[in-house]
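Budget justification, computational time. The allocation requested in the original proposal was used primarily to generate C-alpha cells for proteins on the priority list. As evidence of use, we reproduce two of the resulting records. The first is shown immediately below.
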Amino acid sequence: MAVGIFDSGLGGLTVLDAVQKRLPDVPFVYFGDNAHAPYGVRDADDVYALTTRGVERLWDAGCDLVILACNTASAAALRRMQESWVPRDKRVLGVFVPLIEALTERQWGDNSPPREVAVKHVALFATPATVSSRAFQRELAFRAIGVDVEAQACGGVVDAIEEGDMILAEALVRSHVDALKRKMPRPEAAILGCTHYPLMQEVFQEALGDEVAVYSQANLVAESLADYLTRHPDMQGPGTESGYLTTGDPKRVSSRATQFLRREITFSPA
C-alpha cells in the first residue's frame, strides 16, 4: 500500500504532512536527498540523475507510486522520466498538476483546447532551476490562454529554511516579492512553486497584500492524490511500513525535520 514522497531536502515534508492527514491509512515512505540539496541551483541533467536514483530507492521500499514533492525535480526531470524511463507498472507524478488544476479550474485529464480563465496576471515564485525550465508556463499554456506569468527566482530562500534561519528566509522572501512587484505591480494570484515555501506563506501573503490569492501546494497535492488513488487503487505498492530515508546525516536531518513538523521524526540512512 505504500506511496513514496521524494524531495531534495526537507520542503517535501509540507506535502507529506498534508497527505498523511488526508490519507491516514496509507503508509508513506519519505526520501530526502539532503546530501545534494538544494536542487534549485543544479542543471537539468544533474537533477535528472539525482531524482531517478532517489525514485529507484523508493521503488525498492515497495512504493510503486512516487510523488515528486520537489518543484525543481518536477520541472527539470519529470517529463523526461515519464517519456523514457518509468516502467509500465510504476508511476511518478509531480506537484505542478494540482496547482494548474486549481488555477485553471479544470481536471488534468481534460484535453480540450486551452481556454480563457478568470485570472490573467500570475506571479510565480520558485527556485532558479524551476524558473529557467519554464515548465510551469509550458504546462499552463496547454490549458489556458491570455494568462501573463511573471516568474521570480528566489535564490537563497531554500538554503535559509534548510538551515533553520527563518529570519533570513523572511528577509529574502520580502526582497523577492519587491523584485516581482517591480515587474508586475498588481498580480491577481501568486504561485508558491517550491514545497519549502508554504513555511513562509504568511510572509508571502503579507508582502503581496490581501487582494492577491496565494496558491500553496500541500493541501492541493493531498486532495489530488486522494482522488488519484480512488481512481487507481492498483498503484498502491506492496510496501506496508511508513519510513523516512535520507542521504544526509540522519541525526541532523531528523532534528531539522522535527522542528519542521513540530513532531518527532526519525530518519534512517538511504
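The second record produced under the same allocation is shown here.
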Amino acid sequence: MNLEGRTAVVTGGASGIGAATARALADAGARVFSGDLADGTLDVTDADSVDAFARGVLAEAGRADVLVNAAGWDRLEPFLENTPELWERIVAVNYLGPVRVTRAFLPAMIEAAGGSIVNVASDAGRVGSTGETVYAGAKGGVIAFTKSLAREMARHRIRANCVAPGPTDTPLFRSLPEKMQEALERAIPFRRLARPEEIADAILFFASDRSAFCTGQVLSVSGGLTMHG
C-alpha cells in the first residue's frame, strides 16, 4: 500500500496500537504526525490541546489526508463499583476524544476534497464486555459516530471507517490481572492475543486507496472471538 505524498495524523501514537499504526503508515510512505498524552503533545480530553495540535500539524503540513483516532483508555471494574468520575474519564477519552479531534481536522479535509478517517473502536462496542460497561458504551458510540460521519462526509469524498480490535497485546491489556489476561487469551479461537501490528494492518487498509469504495464500515480484528453475520 502506497501512501507516498500523504499526511497522516495518529492520536495515541506513543504506544500500543497507535505506535504500531504510526510505524505502518510511515513504512507505507506517509508523513506521520503523532500526538499522545504520554509525550505531552496531545490531550484528547482538552479542547485547547486538540485545537493547538491540529493548528500545528496543519501549519506545517498544510493538510491531513489520513486521520487515525487511536487514543483510548479503560479500567476494568464492575459497573456498580464505578464512580461518576470514572464514567466521565472513559467517555471523555474514548468517545469525545475522537469527536473533538475529528472536528478539528475536518475543515482541512473538506477543503482538500478528500481524506480517510479511521476510528479505533472495540469489539466491546459491538457485543459488550463484562467489567467494561461504560467503555463498551463509549466504543459503541464511536461506531455510530463513524457511520453517521460517513454519511455526512461522502459528498466531500471523505471516508470514515472503524477498526474494532479484540484483546490485543498492549500496555493497557497487560495492566489487567494476570488471571483475566489468561482467560481472555483462552477465549480467542486462535488461542493468542492480537499483535498491535495486526490491528495496524487493518487501519492501513482503511487509510489507503485499497478501501476507496468503503465507508461507514466496521472491521473486527479479534482472532474469531467475535463473529458477526
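A brief technical remark on that second record: DSSP finds eight helices and six strands in the chain.
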